[in-house]
Structures are given as structure tokens and as C-alpha cells.
């Protein structure tokens, strides 16, 4: 064979394969040159061009996510051409069906309108995983009799976003329009529903009719972000607008994020929505008017600080005779109300019912922050009438706010003649609560009242609702937002916001001059003093340059069950107190100290912040909460006025569910001044404080007396760090019946007494009996040498007739060979009062699944001859389930991940919803250190 000719053919074949556009190919074979003319051919049309060129145009100057961009503009109408719908992810058109495939990115150019108004109707399908982008004047409208079928999935949501965001630039509110659905359902702006042509507020598109069961299609797993362009002061686009949309429309798993007007808004209609996420929208997150009678269930609303107005704004019509009246069914809603006001001057608020709306709301949770506006407001006469005739109701709902309610008031200038006490209306209905919600972000903690107080059998109340017997959008376990939303999970987790620079002190405080160099923190140029009696709501604003001075003795919040006030303290706020000063929160008033892991609240002594001085025990008082709960110091709870041991402030009552507010992520240092040998201040004192108070993530460090002490009441606490306190770290008496989980106690050698000291009462038959329930406690007591008061380092003392249920407790003492190097007794029962022995005998005092690791593990004592040697503590302890005296190894409280003595040996207490599920002994699981980021580290 002639190899030269083989080469010629091979080269020619290669060249022809490389020649896509025709022309002459010159091939040099070495001995001769062959010139071959390649005929010019037309390029093969791409699958996308074939599918989409009939209704869209390719934007050749743009590529997004490595895909072609195809532009939609004007009206989308039926076609008489052959079907172009491709296989797989490729869409196309077949008659009146237009399919947007996810093989390309779709661009909206101006107003894109699917179908004509009741003519030239189309069915617009959007494949899962499709991205649709819009420019500054773009939006998508689905006309009456047309429909959209956008069905994404959890892993492939459909995303409507701005062109800027699609191109990798920052997404911001108002960069494009939004999604508008126009239906044929009733709206109360039309006197004659058979001839109804209401005009939409942008573009004058028509909507309305008499078909309650009309269908505009399906929206599932759809996200709309960065929309809401503004035309003028009254015309702005919502994220998703439902204008007279009927009940056969299916809407679930939708999110509207960072919209420049409302998140979703309804003008009449009967459409129902579920699994809805509305985040950081500028105006109202959920807005209805003009007769909406649909339903909404499982709705999560999170507002933006200084960037949102209302969570829900609900209207019907200014005309009381207009029908239909707005009356949706609302269930399982969580609203996180923001702080501040948006740039339009509107306060961040929770729910406003007005303009004669009705509604039946169940299982709604509204949580406000320290600088939020009102959380539940009712306004105008027609709406008051709705509350009177049963058209507007709320049941099994929870309001957890500094400013919970705002009343409807008589206002002649506004034409209002009816008043309504909103708090009384709310609390007078079944199952409603004004109390602490105990949330971790938007999820309720295992001990949250929200998990156990919801209305059951919702489907019997309204067939459109599903049974979800908990308050709020989440059941504490299942997070239905995962996988398809934005700015909630790790995809766009907000970084800690820097504290602002304040230029003046907030109302209720006074500024004092600051001399450079006085304070250890040289950024402080503003000190605001709080003193005297606080009788109006006061908020201490956080700032990087400000501290608050507690001065003049007792700063008392409110009067005793009169002149009630709330002291709100923003995350990141720093307070210091002069020598004899402290904060006392009166019965009926509240403190809302709501720090965060990134920005804890710190309360300390003046010496701790002044240059040249040092913080130490007893330099100021501490924090005192006075409640209306039960205490066995009162024979008659209905007339109870026990005097607190410092200041004689009264406490006690008959309400163990009372709320004194919230203390979260708060560190109290160097408090506990001494009045005399029997009167000393604790770091945080809970005097008959009720379970409606939320206490979590607290630290008391180097207090001059006890760390925390309880006198009766039923307040619960979780994530508690008690370090180097002088007397007892955790002390209870007089009938405390609360709960505690995750408590870590450490002592300073020679400057502490007991980790836990538990008492109840001395008189026979006194009630209630102290019976707290504790789980996951670690105690590292100090050595057995006396502190300045003559008390030695010990673990747990249970005495004075207390009962208790202790679970998953680790006490590890110092292990020296002498009293100066080892801990004293680690578990002691004192049977001087015989009721304690009875509690042991009757299993009212128990300890289970616990470890005592000490040289001197047990002790029994009694000053009563009748009860001498009544209990063998070691026998009692080892005879209960899961207990041992095993040696353990921990580092800074944490067991190794390979530990088998503590890990996996605990009892799960979560049958009580307060307790989180654990299977380990002690405060830590060996992996997660809940102290990180917010606590003070002892030296």
C-alpha cells in the first residue's frame, strides 16, 4: 500500500472534521500540495434554539452558571406551530403550553405577561432547578385563565432572582420586580363579581371574579429574592402577589427574601399557602386585604433590624359592608420581630389586625426583641366588631415580647369610637400565653412551652389545615426549611454585626462626662447612668463606645405589682455598678436581657472597668428578680408579701407560671456585697420567680455569696456556668420547683463552700416542698480548707426537708492526700429535719445515673437524735439506677470522646419537654462546649 496516499486521506479527513464553516483547506504532504475545496454548510441549530426561538430570544452577550441566557419579553401566547418541547431538561412550546427548561437561564425583559386577560391563555411550566433573572423594571405576570406550574424540589428549587445576583454581584432589595398571579376569585372591591375587573396596582392588569375554586397553577419549592422595585411612593412590587387567586391553586414551600415591599400579599381570593419562609422583607412580610379567605400554615417570618415593618398586616376593607370579609385560617406561624425602624420610618412590629379583617388564628408565636415595636395590635372600629362577633379569634398562641400589646383606642379625629384591651382579648381566649418562648434561633428548645401548648385537631377546625399540635412553625425536630432556602442555613449565614457607635444616651439614662484614660477600654467615650426607680419601659442600647453605670444603690424596675415596667438590655451591652448598687426587678415588671453568643451582656463592678483597679468579689450587688410564684414562706399565697433579705422588697404569690422576662447570654461578675453576717447579695437571685421567665446561657463569676439562689417559684434554667463563687454556687430553698439542665460549677480553692446546697422548709407541713429536677450537672468542688467564713470546699449538701430529682450528675473532687489538697465530702445528706429522711424513704429525694469521684465521697449528718444515723448515704446512692463511684478523666470539664464512664451512661430526661435528649453524665458530651464565645474565662 502507498503510505503517502494513506497520509493524504487521513489529513484530509482530519481537516474536514475541523472545518465547521466551509472554505479551502491546504494540506502539505511533503512532496506535493493538495488543495481541496470544502463546500460551505449551514451550522446545525442547537437544541435550545430549536426549542425556544418561537417565544424567546437568546441573549448572546450573557452567560450565567455556564448556561445560555434566553430572554422573555412582552406577552407569552399560544402557538400553532409544531411542538418544540425537547427531552430531558429542555423545554419548548406545544400549542398553549410553554415549558421553561433548566438547561438555560431565563431573563425577564420588562413586564412579561403569560396569556391575555381571559384570552389567549397559556400554561407556563417551569422545570425544577430553573433560574429566572430580572432587571430593574422586570416582573412576571400570570393572567386570568392562564396558569403557572413551577414545581421545584428540595434539592432543585426554582429561583427567581436579580440579574445582579446571578452575575455574582451583591443581591439587594428592589433590583427587579416579582411574581404576580391574577385570578378569577372574589374580591370585595367589586360590587358585581360576575363583571369584575379590579386593576392591579402595578401595570393595571385585571383580576377578580366569582370563581372561588379558580386555579392559577402550582408553586412548589420556589424562591423569590431581591425583588420589589419601586415605581413611586404608593406603587411597589411584592415578592409574590396573589390577586383574587382561587383555592385550586397549589402553593407550598415558597420563600421571599429581601423584597423591597411586602413578602407576599393577597387581594381577596381563596388560595391557601403552606411552608412559607419570609425573610428580611422591607415592609410587611405577610399582607392581606380585600376579602382573602384562604389559609396559611407553617409560616416562618424573620424581619431585618432597621429594615422591616410588620410581620403580618391584615385588612379587609374600610367599608364594613364590603363582602367578602377577609377571614383566613392562620396556623403555626413564627414571627421574629426585629429591632428599630426601616428607612421609611416604620417600626418593626409583629401583627396588626385592622380595617375590619376577620381571621381564625391558631398556634401563632410572636417573639419580639428588646427594641421591637408592639407585637400584637388591633386597630379601628370594624376590627373591634370582628373581635366581638367572633370573626377575629386567636387560640393557643404565644406572645413573647417587651412590648406585647397595643390597644384599639377611641379617637374622634380618626372616627374611632370603640376601644379594645388587646391583652385581655388575647389572654381571654383558649390556650393563649404571654410568656418566654425559649427558642434556639427559630426552633423551640426541648423545654419550650411552645412544644406542648399548641391546639390539636386543627384539621377538625378547618379542613385545609393539617394537625400540628405545637405553637409556631416548627416542632423542634424537623426543619422543613433545609435544602431549598437562602440566608437561613450555612449558605449565607450572617456574620456578627458590629455594634454601632452611639452619640447620646437612651431615654431613661443620663450622660456623664468621660475623661480619657479613666477606663481600661479606651474606646469608651459615653457612659450612661441608670439610677433610682425605673417606672417606664427603658432600653439600654448596645454600642461599641458606651457603658452603663448602675449607681445610687438599688435600681428598682417598676413598683410592686404596680407601675409595671420593662428594662430591656440589647445584646452586647456592658454594665458596671458602683459599690452598693444593684438591680431589682419588682413583681409584675420584667427584665429582657437578651444577649447572644457573639454579643453577650456583661454586668460587672466599677473596679473591673476602671484603669488601675481590679475586679474582685463583693464589689457590687447583683441582679434580683422578684416574682409572683409560690413560696412556702407564705401561709396564704393569695396574700403573700415575703421580704427579700436585702432591701425588704416583697415577693411571692400564687402564680408559678409568672414571667419576670428573659435572661440569655448574660455574664455577672464580682457581685455579692455583704450587708452583715446574714445579709449578702447573690449573683442572680430568683425570689418566687415563675416558669414563664426564660433563663439560659448565664454565668456568675466570683460572687461574694452564692452564685444563683432560688426562694420558691418554678423558674427553669439551662446552660449555666458558675465559677469561683464564694459560698454556694447553686442554692435553693422555700419550695423551688423548677428545672435545670447543663450546669457546670467550678470552685477556687480556699474561697468556696458547696457546689449545691438544697433546702426546703423547717416547719412541719409547709408547702410547696422544694423539689427541683436537675440533669447534666458537673461539679468540681474546691479543697477542704476553710474560706474566710469558715466554710470548706464540698460538693452537694441536701438538707432542711428538701426533695429533688438529680440525674446525670458528676462530682469530681480534688484528690490530694491531706485536707489542704483534697475536697471535703462530695455528697452529704443532713437529716436534722425529719422530712428529709421521709423524702429519702418515699423516693421524693433521688439521684440516678450519677458518678461521685472523690476521696471523701459520702456523709450523713444530723443534729436531731431521732434521726441520727437514719440514712447510709453510700448505700442510698449506690442502690439507685446507674450510680457509681468510678474514677473519671476530664479536661476543663470535658470528657474525652472515647470515654465510656460518662458518655453513653446517662439517662434521657426528654420525656419532660424541658430537657434536651442526652445519654451522658455531666454537663458536656465530650464534643460540644456550650461555653464557647460568650463566657468569662477564670484565670
In brief, what are we looking at here?
With 939 residues, the chain is mainly beta.
Helix and strand topology:
Layout: H1 3-18, E1 23-28, E2 33-38, H2 47-52, E3 57-64, E4 67-76, E5 92-94, E6 97-100, E7 105-114, E8 123-126, E9 131-134, E10 139-142, E11 147-151, E12 158-162, H3 163-166, E13 179-182, E14 198-199, E15 206-207, E16 217-225, E17 240-243, E18 250-257, E19 264-267, E20 272-279, E21 286-289, E22 295-302, E23 310-314, E24 329-336, E25 349-353, E26 359-367, E27 376-378, H4 381-388, E28 392-395, E29 398-400, E30 405-406, H5 422-427, E31 433-434, E32 439-440, E33 443-444, H6 458-461, E34 510-512, E35 526-534, E36 538-540, E37 546-557, E38 566-569, E39 574-577, E40 582-585, E41 590-594, E42 601-605, H7 606-609, E43 623-626, E44 642-643, E45 650-651, E46 661-669, E47 684-687, E48 694-701, E49 708-711, E50 717-723, E51 730-733, E52 739-746, E53 754-758, E54 773-780, E55 794-798, E56 804-812, E57 827-830, H8 834-841, E58 845-848, E59 851-853, E60 858-861, H9 873-878, E61 890-891, E62 894-895
Major beta-sheet overview: 27 strands, mixed
Residue share in helices? under 10%
Low-confidence stretches: 1-43
- N-end to C-end Cα span: 92 Å
Region (Disordered): 308-327
Protein name: Lipoprotein
InterPro entries: Pectin_lyase_fold/virulence
Overall description:
- The protein is mainly β.
- It has a 27-stranded mixed β-sheet that branches. The chain has a 25-stranded mixed β-sheet that branches.
- A hairpin with a 2-residue loop joins strand 3 (57-64) and strand 4.
- The longest helix has 16 residues, at 3-18.
- The N and C termini lie far apart (92 Å).
- Mean pLDDT is 93; it is low at 1-43.
Amino acid at each position: 500500500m502507498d503510505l503517502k496516499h494513506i497520509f493524504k486521506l487521513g489529513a484530509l479527513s482530519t481537516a474536514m472534521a475541523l472545518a465547521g464553516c466551509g472554505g479551502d483547506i491546504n494540506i502539505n504532504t511533503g512532496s506535493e500540495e493538495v488543495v481541496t475545496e470544502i463546500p460551505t454548510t449551514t451550522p446545525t441549530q442547537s437544541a435550545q434554539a430549536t426549542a425556544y426561538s418561537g417565544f424567546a430570544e437568546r441573549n448572546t452577550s450573557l452567560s450565567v452558571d455556564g448556561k445560555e441566557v434566553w430572554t422573555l419579553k412582552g406577552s407569552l401566547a399560544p402557538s400553532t406551530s409544531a411542538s418544540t418541547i425537547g427531552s430531558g431538561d429542555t423545554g419548548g412550546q406545544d400549542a398553549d403550553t410553554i415549558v421553561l427548561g433548566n438547561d438555560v437561564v431565563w431573563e425577564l425583559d420588562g413586564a412579561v405577561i403569560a396569556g391575555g386577560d381571559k384570552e389567549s391563555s397559556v400554561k407556563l411550566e417551569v422545570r425544577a432547578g430553573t433560574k429566572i433573572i430580572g432587571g430593574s423594571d422586570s416582573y412576571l405576570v400570570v393572567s386570568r385563565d392562564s396558569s403557572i406550574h413551577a414545581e421545584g424540589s428540595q434539592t432543585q428549587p426554582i429561583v427567581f432572582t436579580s440579574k445582579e445576583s446571578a452575575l455574582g454581584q451583591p443581591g439587594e432589595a428592589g433590583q427587579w420586580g416579582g411574581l404576580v398571579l391574577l385570578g378569577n376569585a372574589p374580591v370585595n372591591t367589586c360590587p358585581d363579581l360576575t363583571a369584575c375587573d379590579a386593576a392591579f396596582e402595578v401595570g393595571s392588569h385585571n383580576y377578580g371574579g366569582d370563581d372561588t375554586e379558580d386555579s392559577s397553577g402550582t408553586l412548589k419549592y420556589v424562591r423569590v429574592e431581591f425583588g420589589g422595585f419601586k415605581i413611586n411612593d404608593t406603587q411597589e412590587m411584592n415578592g409574590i402577589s396573589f390577586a383574587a387567586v382561587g383555592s385550586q391553586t397549589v402553593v407550598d414551600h415558597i420563600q421571599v427574601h429581601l423584597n423591597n415591599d411586602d413578602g407576599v400579599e393577597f387581594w381577596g381570593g381563596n388560595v391557601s399557602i403552606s411552608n412559607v419562609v419570609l425573610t428580611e422583607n422591607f415592609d410587611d412580610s405577610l399582607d392581606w386585604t380585600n376579602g382573602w379567605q384562604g389559609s396559611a400554615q407553617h409560616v416562618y417570618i424573620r424581619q431585618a433590624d432597621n429594615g422591616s415593618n410588620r410581620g403580618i398586616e391584615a385588612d379587609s376593607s374600610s367599608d364594613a359592608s364590603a363582602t367578602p370579609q377577609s377571614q383566613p385560617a392562620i396556623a403555626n406561624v413564627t414571627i421574629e420581630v426585629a429591632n428599630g425602624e426601616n428607612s421609611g420610618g416604620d417600626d418593626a412590629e409583629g401583627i396588626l389586625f385592622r380595617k375590619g379583617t376577620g381571621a381564625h388564628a391558631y398556634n401563632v408565636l410572636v417573639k419580639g426583641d428588646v427594641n421591637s415595636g408592639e407585637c400584637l395590635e388591633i386597630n379601628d372600629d370594624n376590627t373591634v366588631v370582628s373581635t366581638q362577633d367572633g370573626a377575629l379569634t386567636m387560640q393557643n398562641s404565644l406572645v413573647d415580647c417587651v412590648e406585647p400589646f397595643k390597644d384599639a383606642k377611641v379617637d374622634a379625629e380618626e372616627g374611632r369610637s370603640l376601644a379594645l384591651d388587646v391583652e385581655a382579648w388575647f389572654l381571654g381566649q383558649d390556650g393563649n400565653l404571654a410568656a418566654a418562648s425559649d427558642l434556639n434561633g427559630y426552633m423551640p428548645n426541648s423545654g419550650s412551652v411552645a412544644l406542648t401548648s399548641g391546639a390539636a385537631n386543627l384539621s377538625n377546625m378547618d379542613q385545609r389545615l393539617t394537625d400540628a399540635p405545637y405553637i409556631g412553625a416548627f416542632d423542634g425536630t424537623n426543619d422543613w426549611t433545609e435544602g431549598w432556602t437562602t440566608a437561613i442555613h450555612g449558605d449565607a449565614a450572617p456574620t456578627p454585626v458590629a455594634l454601632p457607635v452611639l452619640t447620646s444616651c437612651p431615654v431613661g439614662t443620663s450622660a456623664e462626662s468621660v475623661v480619657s484614660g479613666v477606663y481600661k477600654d479606651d474606646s469608651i467615650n459615653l457612659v450612661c447612668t441608670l439610677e433610682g426607680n425605673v417606672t417606664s419601659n427603658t432600653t439600654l442600647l448596645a454600642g461599641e463606645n458606651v457603658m452603663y453605670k448602675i449607681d445610687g444603690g438599688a435600681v428598682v424596675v417598676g413598683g410592686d405589682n404596680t407601675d409595671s415596667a420593662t428594662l430591656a438590655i440589647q445584646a452586647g451591652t456592658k454594665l458596671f455598678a458602683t459599690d452598693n448598687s444593684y438591680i431589682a426587678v419588682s413583681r409584675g415588671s420584667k427584665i429582657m436581657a437578651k444577649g447572644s453568643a457573639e454579643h453577650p451582656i456583661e454586668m460587672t463592678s466599677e473596679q473591673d472597668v476602671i484603669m488601675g483597679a481590679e475586679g474582685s468579689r463583693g464589689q457590687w450587688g447583683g441582679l434580683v428578680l422578684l416574682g409572683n410564684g409560690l413560696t412556702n414562706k407564705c401561709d396564704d399565697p393569695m396574700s403573700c408579701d415575703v421580704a427579700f433579705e436585702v432591701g425588704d422588697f416583697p415577693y411571692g404569690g400564687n402564680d408559678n407560671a409568672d414571667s419576670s422576662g428573659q435572661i440569655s447570654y448574660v455574664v455577672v461578675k464580682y457581685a455579692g456585697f455583704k450587708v452583715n453576717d446574714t445579709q449578702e447579695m447573690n449573683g442572680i437571685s430568683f425570689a418566687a420567680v415563675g416558669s414563664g421567665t426564660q433563663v439560659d446561657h448565664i454565668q456568675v463569676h466570683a460572687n461574694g455569696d452564692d452564685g444563683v439562689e432560688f426562694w420558691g417559684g418554678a423558674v427553669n434554667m439551662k446552660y449555666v456556668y458558675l465559677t469561683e463563687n464564694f459560698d454556694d454556687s447553686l442554692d435553693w430553698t422555700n419550695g423551688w420547683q423548677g428545672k435545670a439542665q447543663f450546669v457546670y460549677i467550678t470552685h477556687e480553692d480556699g474561697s468556696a463552700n458547696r457546689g449545691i446546697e438544697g433546702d426546703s422548709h423547717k416547719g412541719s407541713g409547709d408547702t410547696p416542698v422544694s423539689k427541683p429536677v436537675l440533669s447534666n450537672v458537673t461539679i468540681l468542688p474546691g479543697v477542704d480548707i476553710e474560706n474566710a467564713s469558715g466554710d470548706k470546699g464540698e460538693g452537694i449538701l441536701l438538707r432542711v426537708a428538701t426533695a429533688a430529682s438529680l440525674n446525670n450528675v458528676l462530682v469530681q473532687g480534688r484528690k490530694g492526700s491531706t485536707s489542704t489538697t483534697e475536697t471535703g465530702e462530695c455528697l452529704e445528706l443532713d437529716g436534722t429535719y425529719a422530712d428529709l429522711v421521709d423524702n429519702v424513704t418515699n423516693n421524693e429525694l433521688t439521684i440516678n445515673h450519677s458518678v461521685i469521684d472523690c476521696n471523701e465521697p459520702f456523709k450523713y449528718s444530723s443534729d436531731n437524735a431521732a434521726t441520727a444515723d437514719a440514712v447510709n448515704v453510700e448505700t442510698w446512692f449506690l442502690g439507685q439506677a446507674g450510680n457509681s463511684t468510678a474514677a473519671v478523666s476530664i479536661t476543663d470539664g470535658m470528657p474525652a470522646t472515647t470515654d465510656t464512664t460518662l458518655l453513653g451512661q446517662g439517662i434521657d430526661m426528654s420525656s419532660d419537654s424541658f430537657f434536651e435528649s442526652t445519654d451522658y453524665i455531666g454537663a458536656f458530651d465530650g464534643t460540644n462546649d456550650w461555653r464557647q464565645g460568650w463566657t468569662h474565662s477564670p484565670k
